[in-house]
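note to self: dont lose this again. the chain is below, predicted strucutre after it. 353 aa total, dont forget to put it in the shared folder this time
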Amino acid sequence: MSRTAASSPSPDLPNQRDNPELRGKPLAVGGSAARGVVAAASYEARKFGVHSAMPSVTAKRKCPDLIFVKPRFDVYKQVSQQIREIFAEYTPMIEPLSLDEAYLDVTENLKGMEIATEIAEEIRAKIKAVTDLTASAGISYNKFLAKMASDQRKPNGQFVITPKNGPIFVESLPVKKFHGVGPATAEKMHRLGIETGADLRGKDVAFLTAHFGKSGPYFYGIARGIDNREVKPDRVRKSIGAEDTFAEDIHIIEPARAFLQPLIDKVWSYSVANGIRAKTVTLKVKYADFTQITRSKTISAPVADVRELVSLADILLDPVFPTDKGIRLLGVTLSSLERSSEELEPQLLLALD
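---
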């Protein structure tokens, strides 16, 4: 049986680490201007309901003392390298999940340690000693439950879900909190009378496949605490993408640009942290009637920096407007990937299988 854990240093924390005056204060990574959007929020800010992809004006209204700071991609890269080196001391089985997350399979680890919780404790302690950042961790027997466990003790804690407790844990969990269930899918589940893991478990695989397509068998499994996906170290990615479904349909370009910014920041941060560069940028647009289009642009040399990425995304976005149909989702994807000439290492977060 494999063992999995998950931990997450938040990408805004280096700002608090490097500036003592910011410690313990609510921070948001992003722009404070009228069209700005929150890319990441500190735990102090999250207590007020501030979260990524939220318009800056809304975030400021929820938290009047909110402090905005600019993204620091060079710092994220440095911290990513340090944390990846710590991971590698324990296992070569490391699969990045996002900018600040990775799955680690520690079933057969380099330290010969038998207890996954002790491994997670050691890794979290080393992250603190080396980077002066805290990390949370989740430990379980598969990737889905490890990710869910990692969300239970943030910040600076860890949580275990055993094989015996896995199905029970899932049973009481609202489906909107399931990793892999976004707002639109959660809303659809609610319309079908699926509010919790127990409700999801009550549906057979045929029903779930009919309503959710290829995700149906996956939902059927996780409702029972089953996830057979393996940790895939150093996987070769064909693309890097991020998308978001809006609470209300968008009809004009200004909010579309603002909502696209954190998605751009996310994919660019991932590419920087992993030493990847892209020549193709693709914009995904899904309308209120669920029809969708994609628009792509390929350039001769890899995208140089986030400013160029913003410019390319804007070139793709501009022809979409004006539109008679509301837009419910936007996404941005990088492809035609190649390794940077610099040796950049992945990620800030871990999940251990």
